[in-house]
Amino acid sequence: MKPRRMLLNTGTVLGCCSILLSLGVGASASTLSQRHAATSKSVIKNPYPSSLRGSFAFYSGGDTNVFSLWQNVLIPAFNHVYPHIHINYVPSEHGTNDVTTLDRVAVAVKDKVPSGYALLESATNAVEVAARNHLFIPVTLSNIPDSVNIPKSTMQVVKYDAVPYRGSKVVLAYNSSTVSNPPKTLAQLISWIEANPGKFAYCNPSGGGSGQYFVEDVLNQYLSASAINTLAFSQDTALESGWSTGMAQLHKLNSLVYGGGTYPTGNTQVLSLLESGAVQMATVWSDQSTAALRSGQLPSTTKLIDITPPFAGSPVYLGVPRYTPKNQVRLVDAFLNFILSVPQQAKVVKELAGFPAISVSVMTKAVKSAFSSLGEGESLPYDAAVTSDMERVWQQDVP
Amino acid sequence: MSMESVGTRVVALESATALSGPEAKKPSRHARRRFRAEGRRGGVASALAFLPLIFLAVFGGIPIILSLLLMLGHFGGPNSAVSQLGQGEIPGHGIGTLGAVTQLFENHAYQQDVIATVVVFMVSGVLVLAIAVTLTLWQRLRPSRAMATLQFLAVVPLFIPVVIASFTLWTFWGDRGFTNSAATMLGWSHALIFSGKLQGVVLAEVWVSLPFAVLLMRAGVSTLGDSSLDAARDAGAGLLTVALRIALPQLRRESIIVFCFTAVGVLGSFTVPYIVGPSSPLMLGVNAVNTFSDYNQPQQAAVIGFTIFALAGLIGAIYAIGTRSRHVRH
């Protein structure tokens, strides 16, 4: 699983749609989005023949399960259809090279030369930061026709400069053998934490998205809907000052969480605390915990639920750096179009127990039923720069 | 080796000069070819001698200078890529600004981080030194199979990846780990939990650093002469007296090396404090990575880098002074 922050396990595309639309995000649709949504769900002929040939480099920050997905599932499937396209896959464990790769791309774009990578995936929020700085080639329906099935809100988060290929959301996990009446709202959750000292854990928000989105949910209690919406798309230091009340509440919870203020480094450590019984409740990624339940790492008594307001989810994006040679861009677009097709998205769901990047409504019946228990609702995560600020402030104010 | 080659070349040139008088015979073609070949070899040797310097300059010196400029608020040139995406930057003009430095050092949390880092590397260094000296010296003065086994076990962590060891120790010292479970069984509940605490970082750092220290001390202890140790014993000195008054003074150089190497290693460590350590205070290595990657503040990360650099300089000074005084006494 992705070890850190939002991108790491990542998030869903699904519920973003309804939430974003309800927040009025859709009203600010750009020209690109209009172009994108014009032929919603229509079948567009694949413009990429299987005779395409060439190669391109693909940088991928992630964890071993992500590497396995690419190397053992998606790339071989792609090569089966496009045998003359060679993908030079460059994995980076836990995204340790994300920032330096992002810097390399930034320099190349500034100098208007190819960066050497034709496709990027990051374990941190590097791809979102790059999209925010317009380092990527915009996604359109003409270059990636199957992106038509991606919820519009997911594309708006990155201003149509990157394309998601999978997602996940943060949910509440609890031990049903000891917790008979789990909280249904955030207020109830906080009351439960206060009533059960040391039995709840969330990870350091710098270390994993499951902790990050819990913190965001607490902070958002004291922000207006418009402020939350603004922080989802842009940095605003004035609005960020509204975090003080939420941070104070989190600081108050410090002595009531696991270990009297011990914050596990990442998502995986939270799961191990649940597994060992050290805590009875925690925020976890839906895909990571579902996979752990399947493998037996988590006991079957562990249940996953949504609360109100729901925690955020986030898609994992892929970006094509600007000034990538046109012949390579065509190959990459063929690849992206391929992995956004329904059969390949079903493989993503199966391999990572994650959400598909495209709407669940267009997925197979089996996939639809798999997501019915958790629902598609989720809050909007903060913008990449806002997330950096939030993590810094949390580090200063909470532990 | 390079000096040798240069010396050979000088001698060859002198020989050539000596033969170059008007009465001297013109050097043969064979001799001229030999001089040219030696000249080429000397050039290559000189170039090889410069390679480490070039390597240091490219991979050490230049990045340090760039980081210094970044810290002082110069965001142009090679720093433009990092600063283009960075947040919370404080630009400097002329010589630059120390705004980022004062911003961090006026921050109470950062002050705590610096203090925690110093305490952890000092305590870890002293503990590692004490354990390594005890294990090796005891075996030297009073050999036993048990102590030999302990020495062997102390080297085992060398073959276990730090990241694996860190996760294991985090679990071992955790709420449901072995230490706390054992303590709870003895009625001492929640007494031995070190995960997420600075004490846990110290213990883990000692565990990780011990193999190298034991190997180094073992080499030092093996050089102790039997005569002085036997003379002390013959004079009626006990084990402790022999160890403290005869053996340890002779191991001063090795002790300083072990302490300094351990301290520098702990100071720059990331994996152990990241996994085992608390969320606050943070060791500087973890704080630097968080600031650079998560808070996206490269300028402030450079300040933390230079703080680590300065602390490493202090340890280096201890090393230089400690080893020099020994040399002078000789």
Secondary-structure blueprint:
The complex is a heterodimer of chains A (399) and B (330).
Chain A: H1 16-22, H2 31-37, E1 54-62, H3 64-81, E2 85-93, H4 98-111, E3 119-121, H5 126-132, H6 152-157, E4 163-175, H7 186-195, E5 200-201, H8 209-220, H9 225-233, H10 237-240, H11 244-253, H12 267-276, E6 281-285, H13 286-295, E7 302-305, E8 313-318, H14 326-339, H15 342-352, E9 355-356, H16 365-371, H17 384-397
Parallel strand pairs in A: 1-2, 1-3, 5-6
Antiparallel strand pairs in A: 4-6, 4-7, 4-8, 4-9
Chain B: H1 2-18, H2 29-71, H3 80-85, H4 99-105, H5 108-141, H6 145-155, H7 162-172, H8 178-185, H9 198-221, H10 226-234, H11 239-250, H12 252-267, H13 271-276, H14 284-294, H15 298-329
Helix pairs in contact in B: 1-2, 2-15, 5-6, 5-9, 5-11, 5-12, 9-12, 10-11, 12-15, 14-15
Biggest sheet layout of chain A: 6 strands, mixed
Largest sheet of chain B: none
Coarse morphology of chain A: globular
The strand count of chain A comes to: 9
Q: Which key features would you list for this structure?
A:
A: alpha/beta; D-Maltodextrin-Binding Protein, domain 2; 2 domains; six-stranded mixed beta sheet; 17 helices; 43% helix; 13% strand; B: 330 residues; mainly alpha; MetI-like fold; 75% helix; disordered N terminus
Short structural summary:
The complex is a heterodimer of chains A (399) and B (330). Chain A is of the alpha/beta class.
Task: Give an account of the 3D structure.
The complex is a heterodimer of chains A (399) and B (330). With 399 residues, chain A is an alpha/beta fold. Chain A folds into two domains: 16-167 and 314-371, Periplasmic binding protein-like II (D-Maltodextrin-Binding Protein, domain 2); 169-313 and 382-397, Periplasmic binding protein-like II (D-Maltodextrin-Binding Protein, domain 2). Chain A has 17 helices and nine strands. Chain A has helices at 16-22, 31-37, 64-81, 98-111, 126-132, 152-157, 186-195, 209-220, 225-233, 237-240, 244-253, 267-276, 286-295, 326-339, 342-352, 365-371, 384-397, and strands at 54-62, 85-93, 119-121, 163-175, 200-201, 281-285, 302-305, 313-318, 355-356. In chain A, the strands form two sheets. In chain A, strands 4, 5, 6, 7, 8 and 9 form a six-stranded mixed sheet that branches. A three-stranded parallel sheet of chain A has the order 2-1-3. In chain A, β1 (54-62), α3 and β2 (85-93) form a beta-alpha-beta unit. Chain A is globular, with a radius of gyration of 20 Å. The longest helix of chain B is centred in the first third of the chain and has 43 residues, at 29-71. Chain B folds into two domains: 2-66; 99-329, Orthogonal Bundle (MetI-like fold), CATH 1.10.3720.10. Chain B has 330 residues and is mainly α. The interface between A and B is medium-sized, with 37 and 31 residues.
